[in-house]
Amino acid sequence: MTTTDFIQIIGTAAFAVSGYLVGYSKRLDVLGVVITALLTAVGGGMMRDALVGHVPQVFRHTDALIVVFATLAIAWLLRVQRYRRTHLAAAFLIADAIGLAAFSITGAQIGIGLQLNLFGVIVLAFVTAVGGGIARDILVNDVPIVLRADLYGSVAIFIGGLMYFLARIGWINAFTLHLLFAAGLFLRLAAYRFHWQLPGFQPRRK
């Protein structure tokens, strides 16, 4: 198993957990929870593949589906949904941060493999990392996290841009990929912990 495969599996499982928790918090039925988990875990990859004119990988390989359903089964057996609300919030944050960092890397790698420019690599990293979450949030009638959370989409842009420059100098290897993953995870969690925010706009009071 390559480093990329390992990161892909970790990201898929993490996003499946976050989708599961969102479905449970919205009191969806079993099918609804499965759909939110699947959308979160594979939706971004499907959008990315469509952008570059490829048949989505999930339609050709069953690895991601196996990971998603295995993760859902484990989450159900552990009765994750019965944990305390504070524990659920922490579990969602950590799972979502892991998926964000992992899928930013896998999306950027596909862009690098296709020899795209800096913008193309960043777009694929961004879409892969946040596309599934956007689809999930729209489905459950929430404002997507990427539009309101602290340095959420910015983490994907950071990882995508850094990977592009590392690839240009030939520094993409197992060590740098793990380092990027750790940096992206730390940045997302630190942004949440210390309330780091991008500048926002407030409506003018009349």
- Main sheet properties: none
- How far apart the termini lie comes to 60 Å
| Number of E strands | 0
Helix content: over 70%
> How many whole angstroms does the radius of gyration measure?
17 Å
SSE series? HHHHHHHH
Provide the residue-averaged pLDDT: 91
**Low-confidence spans:** none
Number of domains: 1
Judging from the principal axes of the Cα atoms, what is the shape? globular
Our estimate of the beta-strand percent is: under 5%
How many helices? The count is: 8
Query: What structural category characterises the helix and strand content?
Result: mainly alpha
Main location: membrane
Family: Belongs to the UPF0126 family.
Membrane topology: Multi-pass membrane protein
InterPro entries: Gly_transporter
Plain-language structure description:
With 206 residues, the chain is mostly helical. The protein has one domain. 74% of the residues lie in helices and 0% in strands. The chain is built from eight helices and no strands. The N and C termini lie far apart (60 Å). It is found in: Cell membrane. This is Glycine transporter domain-containing protein. Keywords: Cell membrane, Membrane, Transmembrane, Transmembrane helix.
What's the topology here?
Blueprint: H1 3-25, H2 30-51, H3 57-60, H4 63-77, H5 85-113, H6 118-139, H7 153-168, H8 174-194
